Amino acid sequence: MESTKKKYARFRYTQQQLEEALTRITNNDLSINKASKIYDIPKSTLSNKLNNKVPWQRKMGPLTQLTFDEENKLADWILTKAKLGFPMHPEEVYDTVEIFLKQNERENKFTKGRPGKKWLTLFLRRHPEVTKRNAEIISKARAAVTEEAIRNWFTELNKFLEEENALDIKDDPTRIFNSDETGVMTCLKTGLILGPKNYKNTYEIASGKEKESITVLCTFSADGTDVPPFVLYPYKRMPPAVIQNFPDTCYIGRSDSGWMVSVVFFTYIKLFYEWLVKNEIRLPVLLFLDGHKSHINRDMFDFCREKGIMIFCLYPNSTHILQPCDVGIFGPLKKNWKRVVRKHKQASTVPITKQNFAALFKIAYDRSIKPTTIKNSFRVCGLYPMSPDAVDYSRCISNRRQEIAQQNQKRHHNL
């Protein structure tokens, strides 16, 4: 004898129909039986969802590690980062999920506690808008640096400020910032030295450990102001001697490797926010970063959004054109650092170490960082006043190739 139980084609109904049925039942417009017949949805499905045994948002297969809302927040974060010019690599997405599950002490069913390609494939299938948007960003990152590309970047920047209702920032240099990190060598290359002719045994004593570099993060605003530099040491625990000799006009940080990582960068951003508040800088502010060096995790992203620090990525591979730090600030700083090192070697037999580095670096920093230098750097980058016409497009590789080709053609024509 055949069963008379009604057979339902799997998910014949849409998500919209399901939510409409549940809403009408909740509002007492329909009974479960009536809604089941009208919308062709099993009564057990309606009952389970109304009793919160399963979420209203339907899913096929086993439950995912993240809830529906958590996945939506992750997708939103990925899209927002891409919009700002920071496309996420799959490894970064895996890191985000792994850290989230650990921080919230959630059961982790992933192999070795970390999602992989299969999870990402299914996640992208559930959120197809992420795949499309990231593909656009990645293709842009691989594009050549051209005048057209940079002008389009300025258009996107203006659109971003308009969407954030922050176009007034363009007219306020106190609210436009650029941050970048640089490695400072404690042992400089010897370069040219003078000595007796034909005398081979002419040496220069090294100023510190060879190939040792200390990371320094600097931030400047378009009005010529500098934020205290952030000196990053390669320590698991900061030695007391380093702290004792550290100037109170700098920020201090540490990481196991001495390299900038997301947790350390977030620490700096908190210090930057404190500086903004202390100096009564109107929020929100606009912070330009190099996308290749930036380390933006989810916690930092949420913090910046909450506090009014709007981060925008410089066009890929264009820091020699668009980044004030690279264009006009770090050059004088490194020249003065060399002078400070030379003078220190002449006056002392004590090598440059992590203990005395910050104090010596601050001398070079103070000699180099002048308001006029900072202002000019922002101006020639077109960041303040904000104008794509101020940019030196001759520094674009494609433009230079075109100029060389034209010169060769002209030379050939004149032969």
Can you walk through the features of this model?
The chain is of the alpha/beta class. The chain folds into three domains: 15-50, Arc Repressor Mutant, subunit A, CATH 1.10.10; 68-141, no CATH class; 169-190 and 204-397, Ribonuclease H-like superfamily/Ribonuclease H (Nucleotidyltransferase, domain 5), CATH 3.30.420. The protein has helices at residues 15-26, 32-39, 43-50, 68-83, 90-103, 117-126, 128-141, 147-163, 240-244, 262-278, 298-307, 319-322, 324-347, 354-368, 371-380, 397-414, and strands spanning 176-185, 213-221, 226-234, 251-255, 285-289, 309-313. It has a six-stranded mixed beta sheet, sandwiched between helices. The longest helix has 24 residues, at 324-347. This is (apollo) hypothetical protein. GO terms for molecular function: DNA binding. It is found in: Nucleus.
Brief rundown of the structure:
With 415 residues, the protein is of the alpha/beta class. It contains 16 helices and six strands. The longest helix is centred in the last third of the chain and has 24 residues.
Write the layout of secondary structure elements.
Elements: H1 15-26, H2 32-39, H3 43-50, H4 68-83, H5 90-103, H6 117-126, H7 128-141, H8 147-163, E1 176-185, E2 213-221, E3 226-234, H9 240-244, E4 251-255, H10 262-278, E5 285-289, H11 298-307, E6 309-313, H12 319-322, H13 324-347, H14 354-368, H15 371-380, H16 397-414
Parallel strand pairs: 1-5, 3-4, 5-6
Antiparallel strand pairs: 1-2, 2-3
